[in-house]
Amino acid sequence: MKKVKTGIPGLDEILHGGIPERNVVLLSGGPGTGKTIFSQQFLWNGLQAGEPGIYVALEEHPVQVRQNMEQFGWDVKPFEEKGIFALVDAFTAGVGKSKEYEKYIVQDLTDVREFIDVLRQAISDIGAKRVVVDSVTTLYINKPAMARSTILQLKRVLAGTGCTSIFVSQISVGETGFGGPGVEHGVDGIIRLDLDEIDGELYRSLIVWKMRGTSHSMRRHPFDITSNGIFVHSDKILKNTGVEKLQGGE
Amino acid sequence: MKKVKTGIPGLDEILHGGIPERNVVLLSGGPGTGKTIFSQQFLWNGLQAGEPGIYVALEEHPVQVRQNMEQFGWDVKPFEEKGIFALVDAFTAGVGKSKEYEKYIVQDLTDVREFIDVLRQAISDIGAKRVVVDSVTTLYINKPAMARSTILQLKRVLAGTGCTSIFVSQISVGETGFGGPGVEHGVDGIIRLDLDEIDGELYRSLIVWKMRGTSHSMRRHPFDITSNGIFVHSDKILKNTGVEKLQGGE
Amino acid sequence: MKKVKTGIPGLDEILHGGIPERNVVLLSGGPGTGKTIFSQQFLWNGLQAGEPGIYVALEEHPVQVRQNMEQFGWDVKPFEEKGIFALVDAFTAGVGKSKEYEKYIVQDLTDVREFIDVLRQAISDIGAKRVVVDSVTTLYINKPAMARSTILQLKRVLAGTGCTSIFVSQISVGETGFGGPGVEHGVDGIIRLDLDEIDGELYRSLIVWKMRGTSHSMRRHPFDITSNGIFVHSDKILKNTGVEKLQGGE
Amino acid sequence: MKKVKTGIPGLDEILHGGIPERNVVLLSGGPGTGKTIFSQQFLWNGLQAGEPGIYVALEEHPVQVRQNMEQFGWDVKPFEEKGIFALVDAFTAGVGKSKEYEKYIVQDLTDVREFIDVLRQAISDIGAKRVVVDSVTTLYINKPAMARSTILQLKRVLAGTGCTSIFVSQISVGETGFGGPGVEHGVDGIIRLDLDEIDGELYRSLIVWKMRGTSHSMRRHPFDITSNGIFVHSDKILKNTGVEKLQGGE
Amino acid sequence: MKKVKTGIPGLDEILHGGIPERNVVLLSGGPGTGKTIFSQQFLWNGLQAGEPGIYVALEEHPVQVRQNMEQFGWDVKPFEEKGIFALVDAFTAGVGKSKEYEKYIVQDLTDVREFIDVLRQAISDIGAKRVVVDSVTTLYINKPAMARSTILQLKRVLAGTGCTSIFVSQISVGETGFGGPGVEHGVDGIIRLDLDEIDGELYRSLIVWKMRGTSHSMRRHPFDITSNGIFVHSDKILKNTGVEKLQGGE
Amino acid sequence: MKKVKTGIPGLDEILHGGIPERNVVLLSGGPGTGKTIFSQQFLWNGLQAGEPGIYVALEEHPVQVRQNMEQFGWDVKPFEEKGIFALVDAFTAGVGKSKEYEKYIVQDLTDVREFIDVLRQAISDIGAKRVVVDSVTTLYINKPAMARSTILQLKRVLAGTGCTSIFVSQISVGETGFGGPGVEHGVDGIIRLDLDEIDGELYRSLIVWKMRGTSHSMRRHPFDITSNGIFVHSDKILKNTGVEKLQGGE
C-alpha cells in the first residue's frame, strides 16, 4: 500500500511512513491546538513534492488563509496560478469582493450537495492528490444528527477521486472523543492534537488513534509550533507528569 | 452444547472452546479498536473450516470491504463464487454500480423488515452458519428508542436459522456500557474491545462480559493487530498499570 | 413472620433464613450478572419444596427459557404438566407457533391490565406461591414516567394473592441505583447483583440493600455461576481490592 | 421555645432536646434507609406521651401500614379507636374495601386541595400534635416544578394548626441533596438518613442538616434498625473509614 | 468610597471595612447555611446605626419572619412603628389576614413590575439605606431564562435609590456557582455561605468571591451561628482538613 | 507582524511583545475574575499611547462604567470630549436619560445588525484602534445556537476596520472551556482569567491559551488586582499547590 508523506518533521516516523493513500483522516483538537497549521503544512509539503492540493476554508476568509500560510513561509499564490493549488471559499458565501477573486465559492452551506459539487470540480480541475476540509464541524454544528451522514457522503466522493484527505474536527476543551457522534467511526484514520495544562504549564501533544492500512506509534508524542510549522518529537513521549525521552527510539 | 471456534489466536482459549452455537454476540468497541477486523477474521476462519458465512456491510462500500479483507490475506471472492460466502450491501442503497455487481442489496435502511428479508434470503441461499452485522449501531443511530426492539427482531430471525452471529456495536471513546440502552440485555454474549491510553501509551485489550452456555475467562486480555489479524494474549492480563504475565495459565 | 427459602446456596444464610413471605423483591443487575439464573433457581427450588411457581418471560422465547433452565438441570416440563409450574409468554405476543403451545399469552404489552389479568389467572390456576417477572424493565422501558405506578399495580395484585415475588430489573453498566426512578421505593426488598472489573479481573457479587421483615447481612458477598446455578459465598466479602475471608462467620 | 421529644433513642440528644414545636422537618433518604420506621416511631412515641398523631399513607396500603407498625410492637388500633391516632389513606383512592374501613380517604392525588382538606379534617378531629406525610415525593413525582409550591402549601396549613411534622422525602441512591429543587429551602429542618457501602460493608447513619430554633449535633451519627425500631448512636461518628467512638460525648 | 458596616462580628474585617455603598451583593448558599440569619442581622445592625432598612419576604410568612428575628433578640416591631423598618410581604399574596396587617403586599409574583413598584414605594416611604430580598431565587425558580434580566432590573432600581442591598440566592447542596446562569455576573459582590461535611463533621464557612470597590480577604473563613446570630472567625481559615488558625492575622 | 502593547504590567512579556494587530481576543473568565478591569485597562493604556478606543457596554450603565474606570484613575471623559474615546451604550436601550447624554446607543439587542451598525459608526467616527465588547455573552445568552455566527459576524467587521479587539466572555464557576460552543474556535486569541480556591485560599491567575501570530508563555501566571488595575507576575507560575517563582525568567 502506497503511503503519502506528510512531510511534517517527526510525523511520518510515527505513521511508519506516512498516511496510506486515499485514507480520510480526522484531525481532532480543541482551540489553539494547531489543527489548521497541521493541515496547511500537509498541503504545502504536498506542493513541494509535486502533489496538487486543495484547502477548503470554512472558518476563515480566503484572504486571511493565504496570509496566515505566508507567515510560515508557505506562499501558495504561485501554486494557485500554476493551477496545482486551489482554495475553496466556503466562508464568504460569495458576499463582498470574494466573488471577483475566488474561483471556487460555495454559496449555501446548508446544501451539502452544492458543497460537494464545488469540491468535486476543484479536484477535477487541478488533479488534486491532497484535500483538507477545515473544518467539517462547521458543516453540522447546528444539526448534529447529520454529522455522520455528512462525513460518509464526503468520504464517498473523496475515496472515488483517489485523494488523501484531512478532515479538521473542532472539539471543546476537556471533551473526550473526536467530535460528533458517529463521525469517529466513519473515517479511516484519527489523529488527535491536544493542549493540556499540567500543573501550571501547557503541553502540546498528538496521538494517532487509528490509521487503516498501516501500523503506527501507539504513544502520545509532544510537538512544538515553530515559525516553520509543526515539529513532532517522535523520540519523546508525554506522560502524566511531563515529557520523557524514549529509550532506544519509538 | 456445541461450540463454534472463532479461530482467532488466543480467543477460543478465553472462551473455553469457542462461542456456543446459535449465540448472538455483541462486539462493542470504540473507534480504532479492531471490531471490523475481529468480525471478518471470525468469518474467514469459518470459511477455512467449511462453514458458510455472511457479512452485512452497513459502514463501508462492498468493494472496500473486500479490499480491506484482502490486505489481511482473506480473499473472499473465490468463496463468493462457490456460493459459501455472501456480502449483503446495506451501504450503497443500490446507487451507482453496486446494483450491477452486488447480489444482496438493502435499498432502504429505515425499513427493518426489508433488511431482515434480504438477510434471510442470503442465509437461506448459502446455508450460512456464521453471520456478522457491521454495525447494528447504524440501524438505530438516529432512533435510540428502537435499539432494543431492532436487536430483538434480528436475534429472533438469526436464532431461528441456527446461525452463530456477531453484532458489531459502535461506542464512543470513554463511554461505559456496550452501546444503546437495552441492547446489552438482549444478546447472548458480550465481548468488549478497548483501546486505552495509560500514561502516554495506547493499549489494546478485550474482555468477555457475558457468554450464555459456557464459562469463560474473567480477565481483561491484551491483544495485537498484526498483518494476519488479531492475536489475543490469553496468557496475559491488562492491569491499570500495564500488561502482566499470568502465573500458571489463564 | 414466615420465610421462603430461596434454596440458593449461601443466600438464605445472608437473608437470615430466607425472603419473608409475600415480599416483592427487586433483583437489579447489569448485563451478564446472572439475574435470570438467580430467579429461575429460586423457582426451581420452590418446585422441589412443593411450592408452585410462575415465570413471566418478557425477554426470551418460552421455548428458549425452558432450554436454558434445562442446561442447569432444571427441567420444568414435568412440573408444567402436573400443573404446578406455569410459564407466562409475554414475549411472542402470540405470533408464530407459540399460540398453539403456550397456555398463558400476553398479547399486548402496552396494556398493563391485560398483563395483570393473564398473570392473575395463572396464579389462580396453579395456586402459585412464587412468581418471577423477568424483567419488569421491559414493561416501562419506553415510558419511564410509568415505572413507579406499574410496579405499584403489580405489587398490589401479588400481595393480594399471597405470593412471594422477584421482579428482575435491568440496569446499565456503571449505573447506580436499582433501575427506574421510584421503583426502588415501591418494593419490599432489593438485592443487587454486580459484575465489576477490578484491575483487569471480573468479580461477581451481591448485596442485600433492603428486606422488609427481616434483618440480613450488611455485606457484599462474592458469588459464582456454576453448572448447577448460583453459589453465594456467605463467608466471604468483596472489598475494593478483591475477595476476603470473613473472620468468624457472616 | 418548646421542644417535641422524638423518643427515638439517641436522637433527642443529637437535637439538643428534640424538634422545636411546629417545625416541619424533611426526612430524606434513599431506599432501605429506614425513613418509614423513623417516622412511625416518632408518632408512636408521641402516643405514649399523650400526643395525638396522624400518619398520611401515600406509599402503602393502610392495612399493611398497621401490620408493619405492629411488627415493631407499635399497635395503633387501640389509639385509633380512642380517637387519638388517625391514618389518612392516600394510597387506595377508596378503591376496594378501604372505603368501608378507612375514615380518612384522599380520592384524587392530583388535587392537592382535596388532600389538604382531608388532612385538615383529621387534624381537627383528633387534635393532632404530630403529623407524618409518607412520602411527600409521591405528591410531585411526575411534576417536579410543583414540588416547592406543594411543600409550601402543606407547611402553611400545618404551621397554622400547631403540629410538629415530618415530611418523608425519597431520594435515589447516590443522589446528593434532599429531594426536589426548592423543597429543601422550604422546610424548617432537614434530617438525612443514609445507607452507604464502605469497602464491602453497609453502614447506616443520619445527619441533622438544619433545624430552625435549636442548635444540634454537627456530626454524622451511625444508627441501627432493631426489632424495637431505630437506635441512634449519639456517642459515635461515622467517618469515611467506618465508625469511631467520640471522645468525651457528643 | 463610603463603606456600609455589616456589624456582623468578623465580617467587616474580612471586607476591609464593610460593603461599599450602593453595591448589590449576592448572598449564595445551600439549605441550612444561614443566609436568612445573615441578611436579617445586616438589617438589624443597620437599624442600630440609624439606617432604615427593608426586608422583602418571599419564603416565609411576615408573622413568622418577625418571630424568627425576635429569637435572636432582633425585635423589629418598634422600628416598624417608627417608620424606619419595613417588611414587604411577597409571600401571602394578600390572602388571609395579612392584608389587614401588612402595609406592603405584592399580589402577583409573576409580574416583576408590580414587585418593583411596591419595593420602590417602601424604599421611598422610609428612606431605606439597606434592602434585603430573601430570596431572589423565588422570582425565577420556574423560569431560569429570566434570572439574569430580573436581577438586572432589580439592580437598576436599587442602584438608583442609593441603597446597599443583599440578594439571597438559594443553591442546592453540592451545586457549584452561585445560583442561576448570568445572575453571578450581574451583581457587584458575591458572598458564599457553605455547610460542608468533612469526614463525618459539618463545618460552616464563608468566602467573599468578589466585591466591587474594595479589596477583601481572599480566604475561606469558618463561622458559627449563635443565639446572637452569626459570628465569623476572621482569624481562622477552613482548609480541606478542617479549621486552622491564621499566623499573624488575616 | 506589528504588536499592540496592552500596557498591563507583566502581560506584554507573557505575550512576547503584545497582541498581534487586528487580532480578536476572547477574554474568558468567571464572576469576579477581573475581566472588565482587564479590558478597560487595555483601552486606557491605548489612550495614553495615542490609540483611540471604544468600550461597548452591555452589562453596566454607561454612567457606572465611567465611575468604575475613574476609581482606578482612568478618567475617560476628557478623551470622550476630544473624540478619541467612545462608549457604546448597549445597556439602557435608550430608556431614561441616557438618550440625552449618550451618543452611541443600541436600541434593540435582538437585532445584531443594528448593534454592528452602531459599532461601525463609532469606529469610523473616532478612528478606533482598540475595541472592547463587554460582554459578547449577553448577545447570545438566550440563544446559544447563535453564539458562533454572532462572533464570526463581529469578527468580520472588526477585522475589516483594522482594530485590535477584546471580546469579554462570561463563564460559570467550574465551567471548563471559554464560553459557548464554537465561540472558542472563531477567534484569533484566547486569554483565560481564573479565580480558584486552593485549600481555603483564593488565587487569581491567567493563561494564554492561543494567540495567532506570536509565540507566548505556555504557563499559568498569578496576577493581582490593585488600585491601579491588574498586575501580572510574569516571573511566577501558579501550580496546583500555590504560587512558585520561576527559575531564570519566563
Q: Can you walk me through this structure?
A:
- 6 copies of one chain form a homohexamer.
- Chain A is an alpha/beta fold and 250 residues long.
- Chain A has a single domain, classed as Rossmann fold, CATH 3.40.50.300.
- Chain A contains 8 helices and 14 strands.
- In chain A, strand 13 and strand 14 form a beta hairpin.
- In chain A, helix 6 packs parallel to helix 8.
- The longest helix of chain A is centred in the middle third of the chain and has 15 residues.
- The radius of gyration of chain A is 17 Å and the shape is globular.
- Chains A and B meet through helix 8, strand 10 and strand 13 of A and helix 3 and strand 10 of B.
Task: Label this structure with key terms.
homohexamer; 250 residues; alpha/beta; ATP binding (chains A, B, C, D, E, F); P-loop_NTPase (chains A, B, C, D, E, F); KaiC_dom (chains A, B, C, D, E, F); UPF0273 protein Theth_1497 (chains A, B, C, D, E, F); nucleotide-binding (chains A, B, C, D, E, F)
Summarize the structure in short.
Chains A, B, C, D, E, F: Keywords: ATP-binding, Nucleotide-binding. With 250 residues, chain A is of the alpha/beta class.
The major beta sheet of chain A can be summarized as: 10 strands, mixed
The H-level CATH homologous superfamily of chain A, spelled out, is: P-loop containing nucleotide triphosphate hydrolases
Mean pLDDT figure of chain A: 93
Helices and strands of chain A: which structural class? alpha/beta
**For this structure, what is the CATH class of chain A?**
Alpha Beta
**What would the CATH topology of chain A be?**
Rossmann fold
Residue runs with pLDDT of under 50 for 5 or more positions of chain A: none
